[in-house]
Specification:
Blueprint: E1 2-3, E2 8-9, H1 22-31, H2 38-43, E3 48-50, E4 59-69, E5 76-86, E6 90-92, H3 94-105, H4 113-128, E7 132-141, H5 142-145, E8 156-163, H6 167-181
Antiparallel strand pairs: 1-2, 3-6, 4-5, 5-7, 7-8
Length: 182
């Protein structure tokens, strides 16, 4: 079912076919001002280049801010993403990691954190075809912090792993993330 006022389609799994009230659509659109449509961001060329130096170490791009809206409650999900990968034949421009995250999070559609996590990991995996990839999201959900149970300090953490990311590699990833926070 389409909602012409918001220009969005609400036939996705999980939203049970409910309609948003006009005030909710207006608030949602107001919160998403400046967000780039998914199609626009993805049409921009993602710069991946040959791994001529045959780098096989861990590449980490962390603390990438994002904001999206929960498809269940139409309120903000805001947080940080942390990405690590072991290159194969390609490396990626570091700002391109943020661009991919923006293309998945900062759009005019709603999502859930678990789907967002998978979509970012799948997009990076498709472009890079790395030996291994990990995407961690740590986010605050306004449905938990600003309404309902009002648990202001709650955070939700999800992870998505692709390819070879065994115990030692995972440990290295988390140790390097922790070093940056000290």
């Amino acid at each position: 079912m389409a909602c012409p006022a918001g220009g969005m389609n609400y036939n996705k799994d999980g939203d049970k076919g409910r309609l948003l009230m006009v005030k909710d659509v207006k608030a949602f659109r107001e919160n998403r001002v400046g967000a780039l449509p998914d199609e626009f961001v993805l049409k921009k060329k993602i710069v991946a280049f040959p791994n001529d130096i045959k780098y096989k170490g861990l590449v980490i791009v962390d603390n990438i801010e994002f904001s999206t809206n929960c498809e269940h409650h139409v309120v903000a999900i805001e947080g940080l993403m942390h990405v690590g990968y072991i290159p194969n034949k390609l490396l990626i421009g570091l700002s391109q990691v943020a661009r991919i995250i923006e293309s998945r999070a900062n759009v005019t559609t709603m999502t859930i954190q678990e789907r967002l996590n998978q979509e970012v990991a799948d997009e990076l995996n498709k472009i890079l075809k790395p030996e291994g990839l990990i995407v961690i999201i740590i986010a605050r959900h306004n449905c938990m912090t600003a309404r309902g149970v009002r648990q202001r300090n709650s955070q939700t953490t999800t992870s998505c792993i692709r390819g070879k990311f065994d115990g030692d590699l995972r440990m290295e990833f988390f140790q390097l993330l922790n070093l940056r926070r000290k």
